[in-house]
Design brief:
The chain is an alpha+beta fold. About 25% of the residues lie in helices and about 35% in strands. A hairpin with a 2-residue loop joins strand 1 and strand 2.
Length: about 180
Amino acid sequence: MNDAALYVPLEEGDLRLEPLAEAHREGLRAACAQDSAIWEIYPFCYVGEHFDPQFDSLLNGGAARRVYAVLKQGEIIGMTAWIEHGQPGWSIEIGNSFIVPALRSTGFNGRLKKLMLDHAFACGIERLVFKVDVINTRSRAAVRKLGAQEEGILRRERRTWTGRVRDTVIHSILRDEWVRSAS
């Protein structure tokens, strides 16, 4: 199995993941603009003059970052991605995730992540990783709610677009843990 096999459209009920394309630009711009404050804790900014260069980099990101537009009932409400991490075909990261404020704390993000986890493990992936900014307590709680184990903190792991130096918490879920929790 190679990681490219993961990057296919995924769907469950009113939730759909579509490989990011130019046709998603304006819908994603509008979704990202619904919460301009959240971008202060993200590594990159997706609002205002920052949006187009970031969107272009996502479109041209190649195999290292395969981004989806996230849709609910046909409307773009965010994005998420498969990101290279570890041995191809063995371990991959789910990241670059954002959903509009109206869908936070509704269970929608859990459905989204479960769809991705089920697909990844069905494709033969053994390990899923989540990297979360240490100050992003909402995302950390969401990842733990999925059953991910905290592995540790990468201190001063990166500089964000604002210049803040970020500590990153690593979480993972292994295939056998996911299968047991689904039983």
